[in-house]
Amino acid sequence: EEEYSDEEYADEEEYNDEEYVDEEEVVREITTKEIKEEDFLACVGNKEEKVNSKKVVKKKLRLKKGVKLFIYGLILLVSAGLLVFSGLKLFAWWQDNQKISKIEDEIGEMAVVEEVVDDENVEFFGEDGETSLSDYFYYIGLPLINVNFDDLLVKNSDTVGWIKVSGTNINYPVVQSADNDYYLHKAFDGTPNEAGWIFLDYRNNMENLAKNNIIYGHSRVDTTMFGTLPNIVKQSWFNNKDNHVVWLSTPTHNTLWQVFSVYIIDETSDYLQINFNDASYTAFIDMIKGRSKYDFGTSVTVNDKILSLSSCYGNTQRVVLHAKLIKKSTR
């Protein structure tokens, strides 16, 4: 058996000490190092995420602020546009009023409207069904009006008459065209004007009165045209019986009409009929009398001729007056 010397044994032991490594310690050092690196990376990552999050939030805030500014700007722009539009409309309305006022002054200088006493040419209508106590007999005693149409016809050959409604400002020449649109936007002199003018339905003929004769006009805020026609539904207007008449003068005759129905109604055309037989006319009379806001106590029969005045009342309604012919004088 081979034996080692003490010196050789010592050298081998020294050699083994140098080669020995504590594996557990190495693992701990490596693990600790990796953990520190992970913590570091995690910390860096968190910082980056926080920075990115702040950037995203700031971006969203800027975007939100931009959207708000855009909306505010859009609202301001629209409001400014509406303000300008309203201003232009108001200015146009004022201009139309000024033009109408000037035309009214011109008409006042050229037209002479006067009351006339009855003569041998006077005829009376509408007595059927009236009693001795009826206001009818009071109204037929009122004078007719007579208008000189010479200058008016020179100014506008479409002139067909003159109308005056008691208890209102309505005191105008009446025109007529080939349709019911032209004078909705034309003044008496034919110039463009949103006030329009007072006009007779194109289906009617002033020289040959129909069962129902219709005159239209805009209800103007400044009380021109049919702007005061809504007075007819006021209690104060009804209480004064002198208001219940309408005068109409034409180049060939002068007439007086007694009011028997006034009302406001949603837009409809059923009261704008012209042609009837006896049965349909009776039904028509019953319909329009039944709508009246007030009871005038006036008899209306199939033998009567009716004058209907119609105007707008707001955007979707109409204010309407119906009167029957009670007196006529040929000129």
Describe the structure.
By secondary structure, the protein is α+β, with helices and mostly antiparallel strands. The chain is 39% helix and 21% strand. The strands form two sheets. Strands 2, 4, 5, 6, 7, 8, 9, 10 and 11 form a nine-stranded mixed sheet that branches. A two-stranded antiparallel ribbon has the order 1-3. The protein is elongated.
* Count of helix runs: 6
DSSP helix fraction: 25-40%
Order of helices and strands: HHEEHEHEEEEHEEHEE
Shape: elongated
**How would you state the average pLDDT, rounded?**
87
What is the CA–CA distance across the termini? 172 Å
In percent, how much strand structure appears in the residues?
15-25%
Largest sheet: 9 strands, mixed
Number of strands: 11
Query: Helix/strand-derived class?
Result: alpha+beta
Please give the radius of gyration in angstroms: 47 Å
Q: Show unreliable segments.
A: 14-21
How would the blueprint of this fold be written?
Layout: H1 6-19, H2 23-110, E1 113-116, E2 122-124, H3 136-139, E3 144-147, H4 150-155, E4 159-165, E5 171-175, E6 199-200, E7 212-216, H5 235-239, E8 245-249, E9 253-266, H6 278-290, E10 306-313, E11 317-330
Short description:
With 331 residues, the protein is of the alpha+beta class.
